[in-house]
Amino acid sequence: MPLALAATAGVRPTAELIARYDGRAPRYTSYPPATQFSAQVDAETYALWLRDLPVEQAVSLYVHIPFCARLCWYCGCNTRAVNRHEPVGDYVRLLLNEIALLGAALPGRLPVGAIHFGGGTPNMLSTGEIDAIFDRLGEVFALTADVDVAVEMDPAVLTRDWVRAAARRGMNRASLGVQNLTPEVQAAVNRRDTFEHIADCVAWLREARIGSINIDLMYGLPHQTTANTLSTLDQLLPLRPERLALFGYAHVPWMKSHQQLIDEAALPDAQARLDQSETAAERLAAEGYVRIGLDHFALPEDPMAKAQAAGTLRRNFQGYTTDPAVTLLGMGASAIGCLPQGFVQNAAHELTWRAAVKEGRLPIARGVAVDAEDRFRAEIIERLMCDFHVDLAAVCARHGRALSDLAEDVSRLAPFIADGLAQVRGARVEVLPAGQLLARSIAAVFDAYFSAESQRHARAI
Ligand code: SF4
């Protein structure tokens, strides 16, 4: 097999190179990717998988809250805006039932190492609803005192009392969606957040002894420029969040109809997007943040930076994570779960999810079983996405495979190598700095399901 392809001299990532390799690759938050999920995996399959989970092994939980106080026009999440609390209360009552259904299907009271509340806007929950969810989780699972509890938050509806109530129930990580603080950009995406309010939110979180704060930022929004990306960072960096994430806006109005409200003429072009992302990354590096994978940044003492240095960083549906759990159980409409046997997803449509739970059925809509080939390829893709390099010989040895099984995949790296985006030395594949923004497209070389013609995924950066 051609495992000694030489790289050409370093090539900067240009908009032209990005356009050439924008292969519409999956985000690889799972492998097989979500496009392979089908109704063949149903509630019955899930119940069998749950029954076989080892009772002593800690699992992680994901709880989805699909409500927001406002609808941001760029949003790609499964959520809807509500202006009264009644639908949230109804949803929580059914969520408690879903947790009980899950408990009945499990082989025992499994220990839990981490809980992630995502959305939507989990801080739309009332403090009484948070208590009810934690009480029910405590009945079904063994929640240890040191369980990691992470919550995604919309600062627009965050209050000091809410932070205190969530911290009392064990919240120790918070993620605030900020995106960009420029009024013109915010107006173009239906957000209105001032720096002063963000600073108050961070102060409330610090006061409640939340030791890990993440701030989500974006590039590529309408009217966004490199200058206003940097001025957003100038305001936020003195708050010293432990982590920041910088995601590229994916304009897919054919999939997310509310994105049609975004003025396409105001969207930055590929070169401008690249300038925004790379200039922000350079600024964060200058401020002492370590770049983690494609789109995360962390202070060097943060567990995520340490995990990257140790080669133990993982990728799951929340993006990059330090969570080592093999099993993630999802709850709530559209929640995705990951088990040793495969992936499952709850009904994304809230009414379908509600109907299933009301009928006493686990609300699974689709999923995919994984086989030995999938696990083999999943490890290669995860290492490339997390570490930007992979030792194919080591992965082959762990999976009882021959290196020659990957000859065809490796040969597909040739154009990336010729353009200075990747290199192969012996059995080690490395994504070079110029290719890191294209890591998804490079990893796709090892994806047995990927079709370069596929138009189902958003652009690669
Ligand atoms: S608050 Fe977050 S989840 Fe809700 S619409 Fe805005 S970006 Fe989406």
Explain this structure to me?
The chain contains 16 helices and 19 strands. The protein has helices at 15-21, 43-51, 86-105, 127-140, 160-168, 183-189, 195-207, 226-236, 270-286, 303-310, 350-358, 372-387, 392-398, 407-411, 414-418, 439-443; strands spanning 59-65, 67-68, 80-81, 111-119, 142-153, 171-179, 212-219, 243-248, 290-292, 296-298, 314-316, 319-321, 328-331, 336-339, 342-346, 364-369, 389-391, 422-425, 428-431. Strands 9-10-8-7-6-5-4-1-13 form a 9-stranded mixed beta sheet, with helices on both faces. It has a 3-stranded antiparallel beta sheet with strand order 14-15-16, with helices on one face. Helix 4 (127-140) links the parallel strand 4 (111-119) and strand 5 (142-153). Helix 3 runs parallel beside helix 4 and helix 8 runs parallel beside helix 9. The radius of gyration is 22 Å and the shape is globular. Residues 1-11 have low confidence and may be disordered. Iron/sulfur cluster (SF4) binds next to loops.
Q: Rg, please? A: 22 Å
Total E-strand runs: 19
State the low-pLDDT regions, or none: 1-11
The dominant shape is: globular
Helicity range of the residues? 25-40%
Q: Determine the structural class based on helices, strands and strand pairing.
A: alpha/beta
Question: Main β-sheet: number of strands, strand sense, barrel status?
Answer: 9 strands, mixed
Number of helices: 16
What is the fold-level CATH name, i.e. the topology of the largest domain?
A: pyruvate-formate lyase- activating enzyme
CATH architecture of the largest domain: Alpha-Beta Horseshoe
Q: Give the termini separation.
A: 30 Å
For the record, the count of structural domains works out to: 2
Q: Give, in spatial order, the strands making up the sheet with the most strands.
A: 9-10-8-7-6-5-4-1-13
- Proportion of strand residues: 15-25%
Instruction: Please report the first level of CATH classification, the CATH class of the largest domain.
Output: Alpha Beta
What is the arithmetic mean of pLDDT? 93
Named once each, the bound ligands are: iron/sulfur cluster
CATH superfamily of the largest domain, please?
tm_1862 like domain
